[in-house]
Amino acid sequence: MTATERWIKDAIDGGYKTDVIWYTDKYIEKDALASILLDPTFWQAVGKTRGWEYKLNGGGKMIIDNYNPKERKEIAKEWGIKPDWQVYWYTFIDHLADGLTIEEALSVIEK
Length: 111
What we know:
Helix content is 58%, strand content 0%. The protein is mainly α and 111 residues long. It has one domain. Helix 1 crosses helix 3 (40-50), helix 3 packs across helix 5 and helix 5 (84-97) crosses helix 6. The chain is globular.
């Protein structure tokens, strides 16, 4: 399974729905794939599957140690900490801007 396939599977497992396309084993057109990968709800759904929250900011040093999800979100907003899905999404876009392919960019940030 390619990195792209893993990310799409995780998004679907996390509840991602789109009118654009549903992943199958068949070829996905580049325009449809680009539309999916630029959708913030795609990244939020992957985050649900992978257990992302607010741990990446500050080089992994800033971890919100609070068990209440609502309070964690409020603390993150107050401290200006972006959710992990957003950090991964921005990193993905940066990799594309640096010339990586979609598959390469997803592979790099998957590690």
